[in-house]
């Protein structure tokens, strides 16, 4: 169904949805991820991560009672190494969780108003290897089956922003893994109620596969040539970029954002 373009040989590379989105914004930011360089944790990202764990628990085991919510949050933090690590990096002590849990509870209260008919899976990992040593990977927050077919849903805990490429990336994963197109892809902001819903088209998915191949080609070419840096593009994403201190484009972008 999807013909993944050929790419030059090189080291095995795993392209996640987030790495692909980062490359579309700023190639060097994505390149830094492959070097193991990540930006500093933030309070919103911690709350977002915890909220996603709570949403998944709701979908898998049912509604969480108000009186049990604090304990559920602590259990999820304890069982998720990523959340535990971010909590330590943010300097948050267990005794200081109250306000974070309260913010998460506000998101959860909005979340449980959404209709969940047709739910079949939460936090579904999809990994495919369309060509040798190129792995595409993503985690779909929720999968629903209804009369129209399979719908892939991504929960957002902030504003939606531009999500088309991310949703199409999930559709690409699904098509490569299942050899069929999902009936729909959707991003939902739990915070604002915004929705971005689309019916994936084969041509759009094939075009995005081409851009993923171009990303792999660019990265492997830079690595093979021993290039220390790739193109840098400034924007709102620079705020938490690990390269910010030494990046002219990033500092200009964050200064402009602060001025506005």
Describe this structure in words.
- With 260 residues, the chain is of the alpha/beta class.
- It has a domain at 13-35 and 117-218: Lambda Exonuclease, Chain A.
- 46% of the residues lie in helices and 18% in strands.
- The protein contains nine helices and six strands, in the order βααααααβββαββαα.
- Strands 1, 2, 3, 4, 5 and 6 form a six-stranded mixed beta sheet that branches.
- A hairpin with a 2-residue loop joins strand 3 (134-146) and strand 4 (149-156).
- Helix 1 (17-25) runs antiparallel to helix 2, helix 4 (69-79) crosses helix 5 (81-89) and helix 7 crosses helix 8 (202-224).
- The longest helix has 23 residues, at 202-224.
- The termini are far apart.
- The model has no long low-confidence stretch (mean pLDDT 92).
Describe the structure using short key phrases:
about 45% helix; 6-stranded mixed β-sheet; 9 helices; Lambda Exonuclease, Chain A; about 260 residues; alpha/beta
Q: Work out the oligomeric state of the chains in this entry.
A: single chain
User: What about the largest sheet?
Assistant: 6 strands, mixed
Residue fraction in strands:
15-25%
Mean pLDDT: 92
CATH T-level fold name of one domain: Lambda Exonuclease, Chain A
Unreliable spans are none
Q: What CATH architecture of one domain do you see?
A: Alpha-Beta Complex
Give the distance, in angstroms, between the N- and C-terminal Cα atoms.
Answer: 46 Å
């Amino acid at each position: 169904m999807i013909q993944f373009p050929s790419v030059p040989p090189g080291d095995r590379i795993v392209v996640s949805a987030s790495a692909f989105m980062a490359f579309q914004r700023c190639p060097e930011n994505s390149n830094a991820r492959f070097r193991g360089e990540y930006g500093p944790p933030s309070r919103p990202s911690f709350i977002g991560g915890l909220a996603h764990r709570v949403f998944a628990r709701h979908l898998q085991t049912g509604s969480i009672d108000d009186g049990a919510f604090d304990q559920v949050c602590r259990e999820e933090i304890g069982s998720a190494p990523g959340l535990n690590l971010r909590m330590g990096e943010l300097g948050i002590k267990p005794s200081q969780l109250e306000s974070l849990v309260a913010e998460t509870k506000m998101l959860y209260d909005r979340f449980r108003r959404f209709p969940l008919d047709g739910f079949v899976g939460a936090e579904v990992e999809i990994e495919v290897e369309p060509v040798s040593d190129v792995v595409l990977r993503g985690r779909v927050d929720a999968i629903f089956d209804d009369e129209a077919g399979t719908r892939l849903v991504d929960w957002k805990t902030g504003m939606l922003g531009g999500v088309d490429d991310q949703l199409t990336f999930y559709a690409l994963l699904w098509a490569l893994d299942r050899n069929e197109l999902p009936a729909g892809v959707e991003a939902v902001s739990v915070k604002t109620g915004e929705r971005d819903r689309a019916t994936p088209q084969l041509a759009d998915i094939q075009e995005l596969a081409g851009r993923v191949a171009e990303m792999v080609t660019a990265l492997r070419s830079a690595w093979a040539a021993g290039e220390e840096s790739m193109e840098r593009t400034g924007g709102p994403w620079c705020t938490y970029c690990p390269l910010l201190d030494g990046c002219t484009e990033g500092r200009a972008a964050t200064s402009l954002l602060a001025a506005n």
